[in-house]
Amino acid sequence: MASSLLSSPKPSSFSSANPTSTPRPRAQTLSPFRAAAPRFSHGLATAAAAANPSASRRCYHRAFARPAVRHARRPRIHTFIATSEIHMQHKLRKTPEQVVAIAKEMVAYARSLGCPDVEFSPEDAGRSNREFLYHILEEVIKAGATTLNIPDTVGYTLPYEFGKLIADIKANTPGIENAIISTHCQNDLGLATANTLAGAHAGARQLEVTINGIGERAGNASLEEVVMAIKCRRELLGGLYTGINTQHITMSSKMVQEHSGLHVQPHKAIVGANAFAHESGIHQDGMLKYKGTYEIISPDDIGLTRANEFGIVLGKLRLNIAHLTLRKALPGLLGYEITDKEFEDFFKRYKEVAEKKKRVTDEDIEALLSDEIFQPKVFWSLADVQATCGTLGLSTATVKLIGPDGDEKIACAVGTGPVDAAYKAVDDIIQIPTVLREYSMTSVTEGIDAIATTRVVVTGDVSDSKHALTGHSFNRAFSGSGAALDIVVSSVRAYLSALNKMSSFVGAIKASSEVSESQRVQTTE
User: How far, in Å, CA of 496 to CA of 382, rounded?
Assistant: First the structure.
């Protein structure tokens, strides 16, 4: 769990966040309790266990808890106990007096270990009796608590209620000026971020949040939502700021997703895939004219980069807008200009993909560009491919290629799988002996409709290449790549890419040989 310490240029401006609160008379504030820490040996701890189980518990905790935080840069021990009537009665089965006594004892014990920062949380504070809250918080402050964390444990309160709770605690708890008020809001009703901001406005100066809002049940208040809300609406929060470098938000979010396996929904605020994407026609029109019409936060502020600067969602709808947007964006994506012919060839492929996918991502565009633009001289191009496979029969493939002279050639083949069958059909047409050395396939994006990129390495009977150092001839390898929604089509495109490179190389060798032979003939004559 991450926590954010808030700062304010004018701390006193929040002293009366809730004007309707009536402060109680404040008792004299006591200094934090620092008890001397007696040392116990294992023998003494065992002897104490028989005479006093509570003392044994303290000995055990002293032996194992003390080393855990003493080397931390900012050591803290966090203690908590439930304070709502429903928790005390049904879970703890203890009286309010017993709960106060336990809270005081544990806070004092934590301070006795030498830990300078002890945080105390009255669990389920949102449903706790206010007067009891003021009382237990006063007692733990006397015992040495330095941070008072107010949790809405079950996400029950509304923003107005939670803000008033923080303001009332600030106004009615004796000794509160010696502690930092913290918030910890759950998202059961979807109000964790709103409640956290209400708490900050009312005087809380530590906000307990999590990246991507992960946590128990419906999760916790989301770090990225809280931080960006404070940054975006700082003037309405009395100038509060967090000091967090927001440009690391996107990368942090992705890292948490990767390591936790908990992926955020596409429409998640700030870090969702759709957070800075614009699909509605009227929104796209506004974005193309001025980005401030529909974006209150710049994606640059959270470290997000996108292929097209306007965040236009590209798909099968509004192809005219996609054509205009891509023509403007591709030079920036590639780093150099492409010809109109190259763009039209790419856009033809784009439309084919857009007809099958609701949304074409930046990664899809890059894969299509690589497959269409960065290809060798075309001798053979794919017209059609049809494959069948399964457990009921042999895998077969029918391939139609367009040759160097523009003629169409068709072949059918049987293989161990659809890709093997398709490759054998290609070999039957092209008639260049090859050996497949490497074959790999990756998914460009997530989902069943992701574009597949294939890379192959082939060798043939082209042994006219010579090693630069030894002079020995070797069999040259040729690589090829392809991309398509269909894995068989992607595989055939990659195979043809490698074969086209090989054909180009063979053609160059033959041309060189013919020139040499012609020169020898002329010399003889």
Answer: 8
Give the single-character DSSP code of 91: I
Residues forming beta bridges with residue 119, ordered by sequence position: 78, 147
Q: What DSSP designation does 173 have?
A: S
Q: Do 193 and 226 meet the contact criterion of CB atoms below 8 Å apart?
A: yes
Q: Are 228 and 253 in contact (CB under 8 A)?
A: no
Q: Give the pairing type, strands 147-152 and 408-415.
A: unpaired
Contact 384, 399 (CB under 8 A): yes
Tell me if 310 sits within 8 A of 332, measured CB to CB: no
Q: What is the bridge-based pairing of β-strands 381-388 and 395-402?
A: antiparallel
Contacts of 388 (CB under 8 A, 6+ apart): 395, 396, 397, 418
Nearest one of 269, 344, 327 to 302, comparing CA atoms? 269
Cβ atoms of residues 285 and 292 within 8 Å: no
Three-state DSSP class for 14?
helix
Q: How many CA atoms lie within 13 A of 393 on its CB side?
A: 7
Residue type at position 274: N
In degrees and rounded to multiples of 5, residue 145 shows phi and psi of -65, 135
Question: Can you say whether the dihedral through the CA atoms of 173, 177, 182, 183 is positive or negative?
Answer: positive
| Residues 269, 229: Cα–Cα separation, whole Å | 11
Per-residue pLDDT tens for 189-238? 999 999 999 999 999 999 999 999 999 999 999 999 999 999 999 999 98
- The Cα 298–Cα 314 span in angstroms is 20
Q: What angle do CA 94, 96, 98 make, to 5 degrees?
A: 60
* Cβ-based neighbour number of residue 209 at 10 Å: 25
The answer to whether 141 and 118 are in contact (CB under 8 A) is: no
Structure tokens at 170: 């600030």
311: left (phi over 0), alpha (psi -120 to 50) or beta: left
Query: What three-state secondary structure class fits 141?
Result: helix
Q: What is the pLDDT of residues 461-478, one digit of tens each?
A: 655 555 545 556 657 888
Residue 356: predicted pLDDT: 67
pLDDT per residue over 337-374, tens digit each? 677 777 787 777 777 777 666 666 666 776 677 666 66
Name the residue among 342, 358, 365, 348 with its Cα closest to residue 451: 365
Q: Which residues are CB-contacts of 317 (< 8 A; sequence separation ≥ 6)?
A: none
Q: Which two tokens stand for residue 222?
A: 């989301």
Q: Where are the alpha helices (DSSP H) in 269-318?
A: 281-289
CA distance 132 to 135: 5
Q: Is 243 helix (H, G, I), strand (E, B) or coil?
A: coil
What would you report as the CA-atom Rg of the chain, rounded to the nearest whole angstrom?
A: 35
Percent helix / strand / coil, the chain, rounded to 5: 45, 20, 35
